[in-house]
Amino acid sequence: MQCTGAGVKLQPGSYQVQPDSALEAHILVTCLQTRTSAFEIDLSGSTLNALVGGIYLNQCRGVTLHGPATLTYTQSQYPYAQGTIKTVSTDSLQYNIQIHADFLQTWQRMLVVFANRESGGGVVYDGVTRLTLPLNRRGTDFVVDFSKTIQLNANTFAVTLVRYPGIIYVNDLVVVTQPTDAVGIACSSCSGCTVRDFILPTAAGFAFYDGTPPGGNTWLNLALAPSKVPGSDGQLPLMSSIHDGFHCTSGKVGPTINNCQFVSTGDDGIAIHGRFSTVVKVIREEGALILGAPILNPGELNSGDTIVIYTPDGRRLGSTNVVSVSVVTAPVPSSTYDNVFGSDYSRYSYLKVIVTMWQPGFVGMPAGSFVSPTSRVGNNYAITNCYIFNGRGRGLIVRASQSLIQGNTIIHMTDTSIHMAPGLDFSREAGFNEDMLVRDNYLEGEQQGIILGANLHGSTPFIYADNYNVRYINNTVVGSQTSPLTITSSGNVVVQNNRFINILCSATVDNTRDYPWQIQKVAFQLANVYGIVFSGNSLTFNSGCARSQTNLNAPVYLVNVTHIVGAVNPTMSVAGTIVVGTAAIQQRPAVAGIQPAPKD
C-alpha cells in the first residue's frame, strides 16, 4: 500500500481481509475531526473477499473512496443460502428444499450459528424467470425456524416456516437469509465524502449505508447485482444485499446518488428517512418535551435541530428548534400503549428536549402526539439516473424534502416503485415530503407506480395536507396492476405530461386496489388534496394489455379534493383510438374538509 499525506493507494490484486470484531468492518477508516483537507483512498483494480461486513468510513470529511474495485464474499460466508422447493405442505408451512451446491456450506453454517433463531427473512422466485413472484402470490416473507430444520439427505432439508408466505409452488426458487445487519460500504457521520466505482455482488445487510451525515455525501457509479458466474450446478445467485441497496438515516443533508444499479435487493432499492418519536410528557414550565422511541439518541437529535409536532391524526401543531437534549429515565409505565406507532413503551429510550419557542399550537397538545425532526430526515437529496430491478420491496422509499428524483428506471419490484409517505407504523421513519420534483422516470411492473400520502397503518388518509408542493412531470408508468398514481393528504401538487401505459391489465388478477378506501378499476386515486394541477397526462392501452380493467368512463377517483386546475381526465387511447370518458371523475364528499398544513 502506498501512503502520502493526500491519500493511500492499495496495489491492484485480490485480498482476503479479516473484519474488526466490533464493527464488522474489513477496512475501517476513522478520521480526525480536525482534518478538513481532501483525502483519497484508491482501491482501483482490487477485489476484496469479505467474511462479514465491508468498508467503514467514520466521521470523515472530504474523503474520496473509489475503485474500480469489487467487494465480494467468500462463498461459504454468503449472508444467504438458496435452493429449489421440492415439496409444499397443504398448510404452506412445511417445505422440502434442495439446497444449491455452492450454497450448501453456507446453509450448514447458518444452521449451526443460528440454531435457535429464525432466519432473517426469505424471498421466493419463479423457477423459470428467476423474478420475484407476481404480487398476488407474495413470497416475500419466507421465514424459516432453524430449530425445526431436518436434514433428509446430502442436500435436501425439511423446513418449517413461522408464518404463511403466500402461494408457493414446487420448483420455485427460494433464498433464506441469515439474521444479520452488517453493511457493504458505510459512511457514518461523514460529510462531503464521495464513494464511487464499486461492484458488490452481495452484502450481509444494507449494501451502501449513509448514517447521520452532517453534510451531503456523493455516491457514484455503484453496481449492486448478484454474480453472473454460474455455480458448480449451473445455478446463478438470486439475491444481492439482504436488506436495502442504499439506506440513509437521519441526515442533516441527504445524499447525491447518481448512475447506480441496485438489482435483486432483499428489500427496498433506495431508502432515505429520519426517525419519528412520540411526545411522552409535556413540561410547559420548562419549555420541554420528553420524547420516546425504540431508537432515540442525541446523535440523531441535538442542539440546533428543527422539529415539527403533529397530533395523532396528522394535524400540524407547529415547529420549533432544539436548545438542548439529555437522556432521561422512563416518565411513564412501560405498558403505556402508543396508538400512532402500534406498540407499548417497553423498548423505548427517552430524551428530554428543551425548545426555543413554545408555539400557540402546543397548548393542549394531545397525548400521543408525534415529532418529526425535519432537519434530520435527509433533505436536499438527489437520486438520478439509477437502475433498480427485481427487488423485494419498493424501488424508492423517500421521506424527506427539497429534493430531486430524475431519470431513474425502476422495473419489477414487489412494492411501490416510488413511495413518498411517512412511516407512521412500526418503522417510525420520518417525515413528510415538501418541495419535491419527480421527473423523467420510467417505472415498469405490476407494482403500484407512485404514491404521495400519509395515514396510520394503511387506514384512511389524513385529512391534512402534510405533503406540500410536489411536482410529477414527464414520468412513464407501465403495467401497474394497482394504483399507478395515488395522491393523498397533500397540497399544491402538479401532475403534468405523465404517461400511463397498459395499467390494470392483468389476465388473472382482479384486484386493482392497494388500500381499503380506494375503489376498483380506477387509474388515479386521490383523497384529501388541497390544490392540484393536471396537464397533458395520457392513458394508453395497446396489444401489451392482456385484459383491460380500467373504467374508461371514470378513470379518476377523487375524495375531498379541492382547488383543481386543468383537465383531471387523462387523454385516453385504446389500440390507437382516442377514447373520451363520459364522466370525468368520481367525486365523493368527505365528512370533514381538509386543511392545508399551516406554516410557521
TrEMBL record:
InterPro entries: PbH1, Pectin_lyas_fold, Pectin_lyase_fold/virulence. This is Right handed beta helix domain-containing protein.
